Amino acid sequence: MGFKCGIVGLPNVGKSTLFNALTATAAAEAANYPFCTIEPNIGRVGVPDKRLDELARIAGSAKIIPTQLEFVDIAGLVRGASKGEGLGNQFLGHIREVDAIVHVVRCFEDPDVTHVEGEIDPLRDIDVIETELMLADMESLEKRIPALEKKLRAKDPLALLQFPLMERALELLKQGKAARFVQCSPEERPELQRLQLITTKPILYACNVSEEDAAVGNAFSKLVQGKAEKEGSRVAIISAAIEAEVAALDSEEDKAEFLQSLGLTETGLARVIREGYNLLNLITFFTIGPKEAHAWTVEKGAKAPQAAGVIHTDFERGFICAETISYADYITYQGEQGAKAAGKLRLEGRDYIVQDGDIFHFRFNV
Fold it and tell me: How far apart are alpha carbons 286 and 67 in whole angstroms?
């Protein structure tokens, strides 16, 4: 299991350049004019995890398989997108299909790269995009509520649950606030997600800065960070230009040396993935052996049978137990045999909650 992030933003903020760098492809055309990306480009990348490399080294794994992260490069939205401006309806439909939104915000000045709004103002740019997404959600709810009212009169159980949520969401949207801020109980939260409103999706703001500001950001990115802190969103400072240069380098040594020369210890991809994981409450577990070292992703709070089901549905259906070693114990005792000899291999049952870094061997019977 990976997760699917839609890359959105105004035209010319660096979305396609970032996408190309993240996926190390030239699948999305990066050009200095709006709508150069007409269809959403989808790219899958392996999630870099130093723990996986260390586990593979200890186990002598012949193959390393990281968990996957999927990016969808969605064409630039503009004012009026919710009414179809700039092919907006088509692109808004693509956003509904993702799990989280990576909102690329231009935080650099460059006279050679035009800005669709004329000048650099990251908070205004965010407001333009969010307004269009909220308008799209309002239109969606206003179309659906009349049909739901009929079911409500018939005491339909689902309608009784969804109708008050839709009313509260619509009222909030009319106030200019995203639907993710709707007050709801833990029981109502899954139903809110099932309404498939764009503005319920968690947001990661990717502040695209110039190369010289990549290490610590700048005044523009600080404005975005302030907004994110107030609303509980997350921020990653990136330089799409640097990411493009790193992606073009062949060896890991060259990449590390280049990043170090800029005062950086990791790529923007690593920051985006880390913040994305935090945003979606995802954790990683591993299956390790001589043939392969494999990383897998589950949501925080998942139980052992659900983790087994990520690998294969039969594993979940016939789950018996999970032989479990923590990452720390696997490293300390240099592998499965050492951990087992030290009494650190545990047999966990159906109610075991997966911990980040767990190494599993599932026992099942179908």
Answer: 9
- Exposure pattern of 266-302 as b/e (b: 16+ CB <10 Å)? ebbbbbbbebbbebbebbbbbbbeeeebbbbbbeeeb
Rounded to whole angstroms, the Cα distance separating 234 from 278 reads 9
Query: Distance between terminal CA atoms of the chain?
Result: 22
Other Cβ atoms within 10 Å of 3 Cβ, number = 20
Is 50 exposed, middle or buried, given 0-12, 13-18 or 19+ CB atoms closer than 10 A? exposed
Give the distance, in angstroms, between the CA of residue 342 and the centroid of all CA atoms in the same chain: 38
Query: Mean pLDDT in each 10-residue stretch from start to end of the chain (366 residues)?
Result: 78 83 55 45 81 96 89 71 50 80 91 73 92 90 87 83 90 93 86 89 93 92 95 91 86 89 86 81 94 95 96 96 98 97 97 98 93
**Helical segments of 88-218, H only:** 88-96, 122-153, 157-174, 189-194
Q: Are 285 and 358 in contact (CB under 8 A)?
A: yes
How many residues are there in the chain? 366
Q: Pairing mode, if any, of strands 4-8 and 68-73?
A: parallel
- With beta carbons less than 8 A apart as the criterion, state whether 27 and 36 touch: no
HSE at residue 284, side-chain half, CA atoms within 13 A, is: 27
Single-letter amino acid, residue 97 = E
Q: What's the pTM value of the predicted model, to 2 decimals?
A: 0.82
Three-class DSSP category at 92: helix
